[in-house]
């Protein structure tokens, strides 16, 4: 089925939402559910289909052409197709990198547009924002190194970096991101978590925390001082205070645990104290761990390992 469905997608246009949206979902599902022994073949089938990748490029490009919806919570058929396109693109990047699969057609993206979608989030429905954040997390984790992805404007930025200024030598190592973009993205992810606390959107909160984790990991490889600077921003303290003073008082919230783990990993002692570490351990000791949701259980495991 994978072969004819991918061929069918290649013959469609982005306006064919009724057919494309379930088809892209099927391709996405196939990549993630195919047994490991066949997964590499599934990835090769999709990446060898030039028409499919050209169609996927058109779908992603439509993200920037769509007018803002009247209701951010309302997901139109066109927006649902965009969600499927971004999630499929992220999965193709993930598995192409994992198997080092040959690429016959690249996907090109303007990184500034992707970042702006997160920074100026009010123009995007929540599920579309989740999908774009998931894609951004994937490219950060791969250090923008996938042969499937071409970052528009990257060559220009690299060309400018070849003429180093006194303060630009370390910044050049951050390419294709600029220092200002990093600060804006980190602040926007923090603000999103505060905003999410009011809406209780689990999918978005998990995606945002994962992206923030990956951003700091990416920075730590590129510039350790900058990574520690971002991880120790006093605003994080306010963020934790806001999360803990929402509707749910428990320290055993997956977002809180993952953020605490992040701050422990990068030694942000001004954000998390020994007292709070003890409080989390005490609350865990008094909780029936078997009844915890899977996301909370995994986050608690990572926190305790980090401690």
Q: Which value, in Å, is the CA radius of gyration?
A: 21 Å
Tally of helical runs: 16
Helix percent band: 55-70%
The ordered H/E elements are HHHHHEHHEHHHHHHHHH
Number of strands: 2
Span between termini: 47 Å
Judging from the principal axes of the Cα atoms, what is the shape? globular
Strand content: under 5%
Low-confidence sequence ranges: 155-164
Major sheet: arrangement of strands: 1-2
Structural class: mainly alpha
Arithmetic mean pLDDT: 88
Biggest sheet character:
2 strands, parallel
Describe the model.
- The chain has 307 residues and is mainly alpha-helical.
- Helices cover 69% and strands 3% of the residues.
- The chain has 16 helices and two strands.
- The protein has helices at 2-10, 17-33, 36-47, 50-65, 77-99, 111-119, 126-141, 154-161, 169-172, 179-199, 202-222, 224-231, 235-244, 254-265, 274-285, 294-306, and strands spanning 107-110, 149-152.
- The protein has a two-stranded parallel ribbon.
- Helix 6 runs parallel beside helix 10 (179-199) and helix 14 packs parallel to helix 16.
- The longest helix is centred in the first third of the chain and has 23 residues, at 77-99.
- The protein is globular, with a radius of gyration of 21 Å.
- The termini are far apart.
- 34% of the residues are buried.
- Mean pLDDT is 88; it is low at 155-164.
